[in-house]
Design goal:
Blueprint lengths: L3 E5 L3 H7 L7 E4 L12 E4 L4 H12 L1 E6 L6 H14 L2 E5 L12 E4 L2 H8 L5 E4 L17 E5 L9 E5 L6 H10 L4 E5 L8 H8 L4 E4 L9 E3 L2 H13 L5
Parallel strand pairs: 1-2, 1-4, 2-3, 4-5, 5-12, 6-11, 7-8, 7-10, 8-9, 10-11
Helix pairs in contact: 1-7, 2-3, 5-6
GO molecular function, one term: precorrin-6A reductase activity
Pfam family, one: CbiJ
Keywords: Cobalamin biosynthesis, Oxidoreductase
C-alpha cells in the first residue's frame, strides 16, 4: 500500500496541492471557509485535539508524511504538527513561502500584535483590514472618528462604522484600486503573507502613497524539508509517494 499523506491546509497553495492527491490521502481543514467539492482525496474538517491528538491520528491512520501548507500566521497549528510528528516519528515537511519585501516608495509600519495595529491606525480615519477574521472580534472597539473596511473569507454583519466584505483572492490591481477609492481607504492593514494572490493591495497602496501597517510573521517550527512554492511541493510529494517514503 502506498504510504499516506496528511496535508494541513486552508490556503490557496494547499488547495492546489490537494487537487493532485489521490483518494488514500487526507486534506485537513480547520473548519473556516468553504470545503472544496472537487477533490479526490479525503477531506477532514476540524481540530485534532492538540499535538497528542494529532499524534494518535497519525498512528491510527498510517500517515507517513505530514505536509504543512497552512497560513504563515497559523503558528499554533504548525507547532502542534511539528510536535506530533516528532512524537509519532512521522516526516514533517512544510511550505514556507517567502514574505513580501518593501519596495521603493513603500511606507510600511511594522507591528507585532493587535495592540500595535490599534496604535498604528489611530491617526487614520478609514483603514482597510486584510487580517482575516481577527478584526471581527474588535468591532465594538471602532473609534467614533473611524470607519473600518474589513475583508475576510466569510460573510459577517458589520455596523454603522464597520463594513465587512467577504472575498477570496486572487485580487487584481484594478479591483483593489476601485475598492480603495470607493471606500476612501487611507491606510492598509495586512499580514505579510507572501505570494501573488493578495499582493496587488501593496502595489496599489504604493501607487496611491498610502501607508501599510504590516504585522510581522510569527516564528514557525523547523521542518525536515521546507518548500517555497506549491509547484515545488507537488513535485516533492509526488516523488515521495512514488518511492513510498523509503528514501
Amino acid at each position: 500500500m502506498t504510504a499516506r499523506v496528511l496535508l494541513l491546509g486552508g490556503t490557496g497553495d494547499a488547495l492546489a496541492i490537494a487537487r493532485t492527491l489521490g483518494s488514500q490521502h487526507v486534506y485537513s481543514l480547520a473548519g473556516l471557509g468553504r470545503v472544496p467539492a472537487d477533490l479526490a482525496c479525503a477531506v477532514r474538517v476540524g481540530g485534532f485535539g492538540g499535538p497528542q491528538g494529532l499524534a494518535r491520528f497519525l498512528a491510527d491512520e498510517g500517515i507517513a508524511l505530514v505536509f504543512d501548507a497552512t497560513h504563515p500566521y497559523a503558528a499554533q497549528i504548525s507547532a502542534n504538527a511539528a510536535r506530533a510528528c516528532e512524537a509519532a516519528h512521522v516526516l514533517y515537511w512544510a511550505l514556507r513561502r517567502a514574505p513580501w519585501q518593501p519596495q521603493p516608495g513603500d511606507d510600511w509600519r511594522m507591528v507585532g500584535d493587535w495592540a500595535g495595529v490599534s496604535e498604528a491606525i489611530a491617526p487614520f480615519a478609514r483603514p482597510l483590514f486584510t487580517l482575516g477574521r481577527e478584526p471581527l472580534a474588535h468591532l465594538d472597539e471602532v473609534p467614533p472618528q473611524q470607519h473600518w473596511t474589513i475583508r475576510c473569507l466569510d460573510a459577517h454583519p458589520g455596523h454603522a462604522r464597520a463594513r465587512v466584505i467577504d472575498a477570496r483572492g486572487p485580487f487584481t490591481p484594478e479591483g483593489e484600486r476601485a475598492l480603495f477609492t470607493e471606500a476612501r481607504i487611507d491606510v492598509v492593514v495586512s499580514k505579510n503573507s507572501g505570494g501573488a494572490a493578495t499582493e496587488a493591495k501593496l502595489a496599489v497602496a504604493r501607487d496611491m502613497s498610502l501607508p501599510v501597517v504590516m504585522m510581522r510573521r510569527p516564528p514557525l517550527p523547523g521542518a525536515q524539508r521546507e518548500l517555497a512554492s506549491a509547484r515545488e511541493a507537488i513535485e516533492a510529494i509526488d516523488h515521495a509517494i512514488q518511492r513510498s517514503f523509503n528514501a
